[in-house]
Design a protein that fits this description.
The complex is a heterodimer of chains A (332) and B (502). Helix content of chain A is 45%, strand content 16%. Chain A has 332 residues and is an alpha/beta fold. Chain A folds into two domains: 3-119 and 219-290 and 309-331, Periplasmic binding protein-like II (D-Maltodextrin-Binding Protein, domain 2, 3-Layer(aba) Sandwich), CATH 3.40.190; 123-208, D-Maltodextrin-Binding Protein, domain 2 (3-Layer(aba) Sandwich). The longest helix of chain A is centred in the C-terminal third of the chain and has 20 residues, at 234-253. Chain A is globular. Helices cover 71% and strands 9% of the residues of chain B. Chain B is built from twelve helices and seven strands. Chain B has helices spanning 5-13, 18-84, 87-107, 115-140, 144-232, 247-302, 311-341, 354-372, 391-408, 438-441, 454-459, 465-475; strands at 350-352, 375-380, 387-389, 413-421, 424-431, 479-484, 490-497. In chain B, α2 runs antiparallel to α5 and α8 packs parallel to α9 (391-408). The radius of gyration of chain B is 58 Å and the shape is rod-shaped. The chains are: A alpha/beta (332), B alpha+beta (502). The interface between A and B is medium-sized, with 17 and 14 residues.
């Protein structure tokens, strides 16, 4: 499907209420447009990364325009990560993995977490003989980021392992290939890698964050803004959040349509993987789940693992701003 | 410790007695110790409060974890019971659900901070009990499908929420605990800093006060001691400056007054001594002129210039000449001493031979010794080096010593010995005379002093010879002394450097 057709489909879905959850928010949005001042800036920059669980921000372009952003830019970062791009001031708003965002706040990075977006996008795969996270003690484990994969480090800490000593970390862009080649004992896969590993029948799942507690009750991904952008542009921030949370609802109500949008937008080539991911991950939890509790939980785990120095309360007080979320929960 | 001088001066100027200052210093240091102890106790009390707070937080975490476990267990039991649809199991499950509500009340006492969350949990729990009760009723009515539908659509989401709420309770309590531990660590760190800082400040202050107080005492004492030493060395011109307004200040003022008084007396004495010396020098000079005339005319008469001299007259003239020469010797001695005291005696420094000095003296006294039948024993070390000095004055010294030895020795011998070592010539004159008591040894070199025994009075003498000898030897840079015991003779010795310092 070409982009123009995709846009028509998306707008039709919003206007016709095909997704069920989309129509009503649109009406409310119109009312809020009248009450709210226009955004302080008409330009907004979002990250274009390889992980397709960021679908809500990828397909929010039309709604962002509707919110008053005439210049919506997606900053491509092949091999890079959104967090670094935000710290460097290259993007204004983007989705981040919660533990990475916690570590960033601890290290003083100028970011502000605004809302949780979805639950359950990551899956930890392991070789035969490894049945739980506890079995990773002394094993070679791969994941993105570095020097640790903070999401998997949180899981290890939760079951009593010391992620700094008990696990041999291998991080970098080629860890998936190393796992496929059998050179790693376990691998934390982020979309679309879980879907690909399943399709290629590589390893087996020891933690599926969409199913296994407590991970299935925690936001793995949050929407964050550059601290400077949020402080200077509160209305723009709120409008951007509204657009992205609406598309989050759209992902929940019409994963197929959202998957198509992601593919048509060129964010991923594989529709099946995108659909699988959007179906498995829970995009309908942003109203219900408390993002502060997710941040508190990850902060606790990373703090007890010695990977951050700040206490949870400090991370929350310095790195989060739920004001817009509270307002949007009432409006959207 | 120059920077502390102003403080020391300040303490010195405090108009209080020394004992009051010392008492104040001790009391201040004691107060600092008490204050340090009080701060330590205060800090300990704070640490204890933190420990109590952490204990409460731990109890809260334990309580919430219990709720978390019980909730998970309850939800599992309910889920199983609804699946089995056994009537007894369902009754038991409903009872347990209601009982769990009472258990929840027990955690309320630790949940003041999470009251809202706990209330939310309670509401969800009541709703869950309601839904499960309705599902059980449907099962009892045989409407299994509807019951299953209710379980999936209503009970499961509520169960999920309940689970999340209990997790939130635990997470919040754990986060509070972490915050409490950090606050406790920070409080400990701050408290440690306060105690250490206060202790260091107290020690520093105590040292400072100790230094200031002690130096406000030691400083004046040292200054006064130094001033007294200067006075002992004859320096009466300076004053000791002590800023203290206590007993030490009064002592310093008295020392200054004493110094001024001594200085005044010393100046008076010095002037009197100069006048005396000048008078003696003048008088000696004035006496010698007529005396030389008397002696000259006596000699002329004895030589027969004025005619034949009868034997009877010659005897008288001999006596006149002998006594005149004695008187001339006395006048010369007084003149020498006066010159020395007036600083007018100068040495005619030239090369001389001590062996020659000894020979000259020997030839002068040989007759006298022979008359008294006293042996003269001379021992001059071979190779005595030529020396620099006033030969005439040194001859005078040795002649005085040998003359005295012969004069006071009635039998035996007088031994003269001269040697050289380390560029110093030592000459000694030993006799077998009556010896000199220790008390007399200490004063025979002083002016007009002689040994206090009958022999001295019998032998005569002015008591100036040894004094003049001593001055002459000292002017050469040497020294003179005596070794003697009563009844065992005496040995007078003097040293002079081969090359005296200018």
């Amino acid at each position: 499907m070409r982009p123009i057709e995709s846009r028509r489909y998306f707008l039709a879905a919003l206007a016709g209420g095909a997704a069920g959850l989309i129509g009503a928010p649109m009406l409310m949005t119109r009312r809020s447009f009248a009450e709210e001042p226009p955004p302080e800036t008409t330009t907004i920059r979002l990250a274009w990364a390889t992980n397709i669980c960021n679908a809500p921000q990828y397909i929010a372009q039309e709604l962002l325009r509707a919110e008053g952003f005439t210049d919506v830019k997606y900053v491509k970062m092949p091999g890079g990560n959104q967090l670094q791009a935000m710290v460097r001031g290259e993007v204004d708003v983007t989705m981040l993995y919660s533990p990475s965002a916690v570590v960033a706040v601890d290290s003083g990075s100028p970011i502000t977490m605004l809302t949780g977006v979805h639950v359950g996008c990551n899956v930890t795969f392991a070789r035969e003989g490894i049945r739980s996270i506890r079995d990773l003690k002394g094993k070679k484990v791969g994941g993105t980021g570095g020097p640790f994969n903070y999401l998997l480090a949180s899981m290890a800490s939760y079951v009593g392992l010391d992620p700094r000593k008990d696990i041999e970390w291998v991080t970098g862009p080629s860890t998936k290939e190393l796992f496929i080649e059998g050179k790693l004992d376990a691998f934390l896969a982020l979309p679309p890698d879980p879907q690909e590993l399943r399709a290629r029948k590589v390893g087996h799942e020891i933690v599926n964050s969409s199913l296994d507690r407590p991970w299935s009750q925690l936001f793995c991904c949050v929407l964050a803004g550059s601290r400077d952008f949020v402080r200077k542009n509160p209305t723009a921030t709120k409008r951007a959040m509204r657009a992205i949370l609406k598309t989050t609802d759209f992902c929940a109500s019409d994963p197929a349509g959202a998957a198509r949008q992601v593919v048509d937008g060129g964010f991923t080539p594989n529709y099946e993987y995108a659909l699988q991911m959007l179906t498995e991950a829970s995009y309908n939890k942003w109203r219900e789940y408390d993002p502060e509790d997710s941040i508190r939980f990850y902060s606790l785990r990373l703090h007890e693992a010695g990977l951050i120095k700040s206490i949870p309360n400090k991370i929350i007080s310095e790195g989060t701003n739920w004001r817009f979320l509270k307002e949007l929960k009432r409006e959207v | 410790m120059w920077p502390l001088k102003p403080l020391v001066d300040l303490v010195s100027r405090v108009p209080a007695r020394v004992e009051a200052k010392l008492l104040t210093a001790f009391l201040t240091i004691a107060a600092l110790l008490i204050a340090t102890g009080a701060v330590g106790l205060f800090v300990l009390s704070g640490v204890n409060e933190r420990a109590v707070e952490l204990t409460k937080l731990q109890r809260k975490i334990d309580a919430y974890r219990q709720v978390q476990n019980d909730t998970t267990s309850q939800l599992y039991t309910v889920s199983s019971a609804l699946l089995t649809m056994d009537a007894r199991t369902l009754d038991s499950t409903l009872r347990q659900l209601n009982q769990f509500g009472f258990d929840m009340d027990r955690v309320a006492f630790v949940a003041k901070d999470e009251a809202e969350l706990l209330e939310q949990f309670r509401q969800e729990y009541d709703r869950f009990v309601e839904v499960v009760t309705r599902a059980v009723e449907l099962i009892r009515e045989g409407k299994d499908a509807e019951a299953r539908e209710m379980q999936l659509a209503k009970a499961s989401p509520i169960a999920d929420r309940l689970e999340r709420l209990t997790n939130q309770l635990v997470n919040k309590a754990e986060a509070d605990m972490v915050a409490g531990i950090e606050a406790s660590e920070q409080a400990y760190s701050t408290a440690r800093g306060i105690v250490i800082g206060f202790a260091i400040a107290s020690i520093a202050l105590a040292l400072l006060l100790g230094y200031a107080f002690s130096w406000s005492l030691i400083g004046p004492v040292k200054a006064i001691e130094g001033r007294l030493e200067e006075i002992a060395h004859g320096d009466f011109a300076k004053r000791v400056e002590v800023a203290s307004r206590d007993e030490l200040g009064a002592l310093a003022a008295n020392v200054n007054r004493m110094s001024e008084e001594l200085g005044r007396l010393y100046r008076q004495l010095e002037a009197a001594s100069k006048h005396k010396s000048q008078f003696l020098a003048n008088m000696s000079h004035e006496l010698r002129t007529p005396l030389n005339a008397v002696l000259g005319y006596a000699e002329l008469i004895l030589d027969g210039v004025y005619g034949e001299v009868s034997a009877k007259m010659r005897d008288v003239l001999d006596r006149i000449e002998r006594n005149g020469r004695h008187l001339l010797g006395l006048v010369n001695d007084v003149l020498d001493l006066s010159k020395i005291e007036a600083g007018q005696l100068t040495l005619a420094i030239a090369d001389y031979s001590m062996a020659q000095v000894v020979a000259n003296v020997l030839s002068a006294v040989e007759g006298l010794a022979r008359d008294k039948k006293i042996g003269l024993n001379v021992d001059v070390a071979p190779g005595l080096p030529p020396a620099l000095g006033d030969e005439r004055k040194l001859t005078q010294v040795l002649l005085n010593l040998v003359g005295n030895a012969i004069k006071f020795t009635d039998a035996g011998e007088v031994a003269i010995k001269a040697s050289c070592a380390d560029d110093t010539i030592t000459v000694s004159v030993a006799d077998s005379g009556p010896g000199i008591s220790e008390a007399d040894q200490a004063r025979i070199f002083e002016e007009f002093q002689q040994a206090q025994d009958g022999s001295t009075r019998h032998k005569g003498g002015t008591g100036l010879g040894l004094t003049i000898s001593k001055r002459i030897v000292e002017l050469h840079g040497g020294r003179i002394w005596v070794e003697s015991r009563l009844g065992q003779g005496s040995t007078f010795s003097f040293t002079v450097p081969v090359r005296p310092h200018p």
